[in-house]
UniProtKB/TrEMBL annotation:
This is Alpha-E domain-containing protein. Residues 1-314 form the DUF403 domain. Pfam families: Alpha-E. Signal peptide: none annotated. The lineage of its organism: Bacteria, Bacillati, Bacillota, Bacilli, Bacillales. InterPro entries: ATP-dep_Glu-Cys_Ligase-2, DUF403. It comes from Marinicrinis sediminis.
């Protein structure tokens, strides 16, 4: 496969995953603020700055806005053309990548991404209303799931399919690590019962990862930080856990290379193996011993390194953070 086609497949998938993740982050944060069990606790700005930190948007945001508030953050993360990773920009990038490889992907996939982009462009981005924005985020999530359904249902299991998977699983693993990193150290300020506030905090984490129902099925207990970390970091069957994502990356690498390790792919193989060992044989106790921030940052750094090595190994375009 030509490297430019592989690059388009990789970034098409990664940007659709990014758009969905951002839609879920904002939607859950809005719901969390509406259901705030202690209105005198965390401020509006603190809640929204956490979303910016998850995405690494803090510095770019404050270059454009003076303070952190609901409408400005939502505009920046959702519709801003000054933010290359906004939902609108991510969908446009995915659509443009799909346009260049229409002969490789199913026609249904191109039609979906084209209509998705047109729906985004038709949305009244400067006049959106708070009481209707939830339907917009639900549309973004539904379109992403539709995208994944077409890929899994009708795409030939060849190199094109595998590069789509590489983009999807890498983006998902890194975003889950960022969510855990920010919320593990987020200390809600409460004048009421701190246990209730902490419960609400971890409820948000699970919903941002679409893992609330799966978590309850696994643990059937009150939300505990250690159990949420264990579930989203080490669970081997939940599709948004970091371990599951990394194991899917390993399988995708094996599919591309047919199990053969050569000088040109050895560095990528080693980095994938190191991260896989961390999440396969790690434990919550080890996370606490090393330090949660250091552990999650290590995962983010390794994901970034894997992205760079994918670029180098398969001659793709630049990988952004």
């Amino acid at each position: 496969m030509l490297s430019r086609a592989a690059d388009s497949l990789f970034w098409m998938a990664r940007n659709i995953e990014r758009a969905e993740n951002n839609a879920r982050l904002i939607d859950v944060n809005l719901e969390s603020m509406l259901e705030n069990v202690d209105p005198s606790g965390d401020s509006e700005g603190d809640n929204w700055e956490a979303i910016l930190r998850i995405n690494g948007y803090v510095q770019p945001y404050y270059q454009l806005y003076e303070c952190c508030n609901t409408r400005d953050v939502m505009n920046f993360v959702t519709f801003s053309t000054d933010n290359p990773n906004s939902i609108l920009q991510s969908v446009e990038i995915a659509r443009e990548n799909a346009r260049t490889i229409r002969g490789i992907i199913p026609q249904e996939l191109w039609e979906l991404l084209n209509s998705f982009f047109l729906r985004m462009k038709e949305y009244p981005v400067k006049q959106w209303e708070m009481d209707s924005i939830h339907q917009f985020f639900q549309m973004v999530k539904d379109q992403s799931l539709h995208f994944q359904g077409i890929v899994d249902a009708i795409m030939f299991r060849g190199d094109a399919y595998t590069f789509i998977k590489l983009g999807k699983w890498l983006e998902r693993a890194e975003k889950t690590a960022r969510i855990l990193d920010i919320y593990y150290h987020k200390k809600p300020i409460s004048t009421l019962n701190p246990d209730i506030v902490e419960h609400h905090n971890w409820w948000s984490v699970l919903h941002m990862s679409s893992g609330y129902e799966a978590y309850l099925e696994q643990y059937r207990s009150y939300l505990k930080p250690e159990k949420v970390v264990e579930f989203l970091l080490f669970n081997e069957t939940f599709p948004r856990s970091i371990r599951y994502c990394i194991e899917q990356l390993m399988l995708s690498f094996d599919d591309l290379e047919q199990g053969k390790i050569q000088p040109y792919n050895r560095s990528l193989y080693i980095e994938l193996g190191k991260l896989h060992a961390y999440v396969k044989y790690g434990s919550v106790e080890e996370v606490i011993q090393i330090g949660a921030h250091e552990y999650f940052r290590m995962i983010q750094k390794s994901c970034n390194q894997i992205g760079q090595l994918i670029r180098k190994t398969y001659y793709l375009g630049e990988i952004d953070g």
